[in-house]
Amino acid sequence: MKRKAGAFVGICLAALLLVGCGKSNNSSSSGSNGTTTTKKTDKFQITGDAGSDQYRGVIENGRYRVSKSRGVGVQQDANNMLNLKNFDIGMTDISKKFFSTQSYIFQEGQYLSTSTVEKWLGRQSKDNPDGLNPVDNGNGSNRNPMYVQQIGEQDYMKNNNGKLTLAGMTIGIGMNQKDYYQKQQYGPTFTQSIPHDKMVAQGKADAQKILERVRKIDGVPNNIPIVIAMFEQAPNDSLVGGSFYAYAVSNNGTKLGDWKDLDIKNVVFPATSTNSVPNSNDEHSFENFKDKIQNFFPNLAGVTAQAQYDGNTLKEMNVNVTTQFYSETEIISFTQYVAQAAQSYLPNKIPINIQILGSDGKTQAFLSRNAGEGKFESHILTGN
Amino acid sequence: MKRKAGAFVGICLAALLLVGCGKSNNSSSSGSNGTTTTKKTDKFQITGDAGSDQYRGVIENGRYRVSKSRGVGVQQDANNMLNLKNFDIGMTDISKKFFSTQSYIFQEGQYLSTSTVEKWLGRQSKDNPDGLNPVDNGNGSNRNPMYVQQIGEQDYMKNNNGKLTLAGMTIGIGMNQKDYYQKQQYGPTFTQSIPHDKMVAQGKADAQKILERVRKIDGVPNNIPIVIAMFEQAPNDSLVGGSFYAYAVSNNGTKLGDWKDLDIKNVVFPATSTNSVPNSNDEHSFENFKDKIQNFFPNLAGVTAQAQYDGNTLKEMNVNVTTQFYSETEIISFTQYVAQAAQSYLPNKIPINIQILGSDGKTQAFLSRNAGEGKFESHILTGN
């Protein structure tokens, strides 16, 4: 998973932005290495650069084409916003397996509306026949759990002679491992665990239903690939977000191909007894880094990290260092020191981002290293 | 003023960090282009890289050698922390005119203690004969204002065969343009303006006194250059911090050389009637950028910038963009769009940093361009 957006260029794109503004300097005439092939129409423009490993996005009349179900995710994941973050990024990552960032343009989901998604996420009932969750049978010991927590849609477009055409779609389905409920409003919250195999089976059935419904939506062709990606929501009290555990693709109609399992784990450093890390070498590396960093000032620095594993292989690490600074020169010196310590101690070969935060929680400096690079690049942030 | 810390390497430095940790991987054996000449002693280590345009700092027994008057600045500038930021960075910038980042090592001030600085910043009295501010004559219409608001010290060291030696010093003196006072505790705050020429004259007299006192301090040689830099504090309600307006150097003893005036102005964009900007072209550029950005989402984005001018020449710009995001893909698309708009509209040839903040005030993405570069480099931040 690559978070670094890279550099964005493209004469065409910069030119698009310049439309309607004769006074500004066109600074984009040099240094372009973009391979943008899009053309301006009255209908849409595109963010980003085709040469990047990030998708370009769709702008319509100078405004981003936001999701038709915008905000549903925020609402569904209000108790652990890291779920939403991982859900969005993970869907994009899986999509890259099928839709290359060079050929496809990303569009926020335009076919599932807020009301549709909310209906589907509800319980099945006379009033809501499309509810994917089982009928309400009360809050007794045999309570039917809420299995499906969120549904996301991403559209992958092609530019056919200036006309954006839907060429692929990814549907993410977030499944609960915990069912939270209240017996009365404002009462205490009860928790029911959902067995993993039950969650997986239920998810497969829901995936098939959703695929069939999506194929029927006006504007969704029968013959574009639709990827269905299954996400396991992390518990509300988890320090990490959930992760995708499987995906399947339907190339045509309502037939879904074989399920492919994923073994992605999100973890937090430092490891604890209830929160272990797949690889103890990484744990040692982090602990050494932390020891070196946290005593730099007389006041102790907090050092934590979120990391993602594919199986036992560390894929990326996002480090947060929080301390109290008494001057700008302390920020600069600390950033230099963190860059050295990170290079010496943190695992090689993976992309690492480090944020240095002041005691007010604001980012003071930012360090990053791409996969395969030795050095960290540092930025001291100001004006915050 | 260059804020980008650049990349930090150096086999020697990485090796220093590795002392006492046999298990970690030495990832520094490749890619080194540092020109570090320091050697390890039992006494000190150094942060950073001699090849950088930032000073390296002093580490003692694994801990940063903090200022002997650490925290006094935070206390003195509590009503406008931007003063402190500009004070620290500005002192370093002026120091670079005299002490090259290649040859000199930065050390937080070790010769003026908290108690000394607090005494000097106080009013002159029987109990405090060293107070630089005039005697208390009450809070009537002829009240003696508080002229001196803060005093900072930076030491510039040379490494002589593994021994750090004081080779230069910069003293910053922060002068008030406004004198704030209360007639009774917890009462309303009154303000008295200090005429500019009076402030400058008083500052020159204080500079001479401070130079004489500093030369007498044990460990401060008579023949090292001491730079005295004069800072005008911004008012408490200012959206920008103050700036340095003059400096002079004493190469020997207590004789201070000619004063050299500076014309540094810190401004905020968008400009307002009470807060103008020296160059209207820059104002247009910023407004175009802002217009393009703020309507990207249905919800309006806030777009502001802090910039620094030397005379009428824009030197650098720090942009803050704040908006509400509903998904990670929105953050990515917005960052791409901001990169394009910044390249098209913002002034060329100066270093620009852009922070993209969520509605919770946390940094979500960061873009930067060095002076002379065309493209912005983007980073999507996670794990925050």
TrEMBL record, chains A, B:
Protein name: Lipoprotein, pheromone
Record keywords: Lipoprotein, Signal
Composition bias, Low complexity: 24-38
Cytoplasm is among the record's keywords: no
InterPro entries found in the cross-reference section: CamS
Signal peptide from the UniProt entry: 1-24
Segments for region (Disordered): 24-49, 123-144
Record-linked PROSITE patterns: PROKAR_LIPOPROTEIN
Keyword Metal-binding: no
